[in-house]
Amino acid sequence: MSGPPAVRAARRPTLSADPPREKWAVLPGPGPYAPGMGSLVRHITIDSSDAYRLATFWAAVLDAKVSDEDAPGDADALVESANGALLFVTVPEKKSVKNRVHLDIVPAEGTRDEEVERLLALGATLVGDHRVPDGRGWVTLADPEGNEFCVERGAAERTG
Hints:
Blueprint: E1 44-48, H1 51-61, E2 65-66, E3 76-81, E4 84-90, E5 103-105, H2 112-122, E6 125-129, E7 139-142, E8 148-151, H3 155-159
Parallel strand pairs: 1-4, 5-8
Antiparallel strand pairs: 2-3, 3-4, 6-7, 7-8
């Protein structure tokens, strides 16, 4: 499905009307707050130079798939997995500085070190190795467009 992200309304959440004003509580800080009214993350959006290409990489990382609505050349591409969704959006600017936000991932199966090798084979690059002799630590990798992410130990390694 081609078109700019703003046109692809199916990707955007629908908003319900505000609750009646008497349900709002006043807390320190800006704005009113209604108990039980937190926000939900619909997806994490990542700027890219080629949305479909980067979505394909992350789909392999997450053992997920790129949405059937997306194709090479589209302005955006969505990857949905059991743990959330990533939306890749094509932008004209290149990545120029370290990410202010990054993903921390863990292997669904196997070890952190096996997962690092798998991700390197998919096209990630090593940015930093922060593993320590006792087995703790993490590895910082970058996706094909340079976005950093960390690989931590899986649940079995943390408890074993």
